[in-house]
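How it folds
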Amino acid sequence: MPRIELEIACGSILDAVIADQGGADRVELCSALELDGLTPSLGTAFEVSERIGCPWIGMVRPRAGDFVYAKSELAVMDRDASLLMEAGASGIAFGCLTADGDVDARACRRLMRAAGRGETAFHPVETVFHRAFDATRDPLRALEALVELGFTRMLTSGGARTALEGVARIRSLVERAAGRIEILPAGGIREHNVEAVVKQTGCEQVHLSRR
């Protein structure tokens, strides 16, 4: 079995340092893990850049709730994306949907451009579509939209409560993606079930959180 990459969602500097020291390949930095992650403070972002050695992805999510954003909210997300990249992020994680449950391509392109404004030669931008994917009305159509937009990866539990419960859907997404976008299983993955998730989905990376 190939080596599995481990991404840890962290809600504080301490969490990020522990994850880094414990061998995480990548950190997803956010606040309010109890709300499934919101945008971290800039102070936290800069401190994490100074204290950990592994790459980190900055969450861009201004509030809990749905993923349909008003123009004013997108303006905030635009600024946050650029500032997180300036703070040292390797990329950003976000998810924008239309009221009909489709991927909001226009909003996504705006945030991808915003992240690019903060790009440096040392930090090529990764763009990650978070678990808003599981709220889309047509997962296969959404997958193709993300591929067309050029996302690096997407998180999913396969539309189920946990990734283990959604392994069949995740595997079908992996097969449909065919290497065009990385599929990152997320949701309820723990030490006791991570091997089963990996084997049954065919994924080579997993997403856990330090709640």
Summary: Helices lie at 13-21, 42-51, 71-86, 105-117, 139-149, 167-177, 194-201. The CA atoms of residues 143 and 177 lie 7 Å apart. The chain is about 35% helix and 15% strand. Residues 71-86 form the longest helix (16 residues).
